[in-house]
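User: Watch each token:
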Amino acid sequence: MGLFRSGDVIGIADDALTFALEASRETHPDEYMGLLRGEPASEFGLDHDGLLVTDVLIVPGTESNPVSATVKTNMIPNDFSSVGSVHSHPNGVLQPSQADLATFGKGQVHIIIGHPYGREDWVALDREGKRRSLPVYDVEMDDGEEFFHFTQEDIDAELGLDGDES
């Protein structure tokens, strides 16, 4: 399986868009960058063939400044299937730069989020940098509680501590 997943991207989950907007806001005045992950839309009760953007992957070691963000490709997990990318433009311009276009070769959808990072301050683009439709779907997302459901006692037990050491 390749890094980029096949299948048409039909939209983005509201939770994924909200995460990207908040991450862009928190990273300001530097650029934010992440990769987009998609899941079959049918898994969310949508009567569509294709993929729904459900997650934004933050790649460790990503370097950013006010005019660019660079992902260290060697830090992308081997099993990650991307459908595109998301990055912010702290200057608010929602047009892709030449450098942006050079990174759009893979993936089906690329999102640019502009300052002030509100619900209307983003665009979806195709590989060529042309605007495309990307509807936002309010779907029930798995919040991952089971994965992160552990207590300090669980951690202490895993480390072989009896809990009395402070």
